[in-house]
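Entry for the shared binder. Reason: the reviewer on the internal report wants the predicted structure included alongside the sequence.
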Amino acid sequence: MRVPVLKLDGGVAGEITLDDDFFGAEFRTESLSEVVRWQLAQRQAGTHSSKCRSDISRTTRKMYKQKGTGNARHGARTANLFVGGGISFGPVPRSHSFKINKKVRRLAIRGLLSQKQKEGNLIICDGVSLGEAKTKSLLGCLANIGLAESSSALFVFDGEQSGVFKMACANVRGVDIIPAIGLNVYAGLQHEKLVLTKSAVESLQKRLLG
């Protein structure tokens, strides 16, 4: 399919051919769900911890005689029934990460881009060059390519000088920019609009279809 390439000043820089196998893939919610769970699991530190009976520093002397007191049988103050005792089945430091196939990750990205294209939420621009790191300048560019001030948009670039554009995005809520190599399902789903530069499209198609 062929779609127009927009300029940030509102003009049209030509057209680009989008691969139907990439931007026309089937949208499968199960693959997106699995990849999002995988991404969020990678973010968990896994440092939660609690002390069990063997970690408590208390006397292990028998508290009272075994029989005749009417109380339950106890051998140490480290039991979980007592204040200051150990925790039964408490959390321990561990890794929450798990592995998923690279095929599934690629399928999820292709499904995300295809759905954005199908919904009309995919925009192709010629670049992300901005003259000055001004919020006003960025808002003007957003309006030129059909994005309202309150729009949620994710810009994806590849190789362009994006430092000025990134600084301008800092004060605009809902607008972010990432490199093509960092495009992920979770970030894409958090934004309504997806704006790819022409070079980012070529990079993604080459990397994920190659």
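Summary line for the report: The chain has seven helices and six strands.
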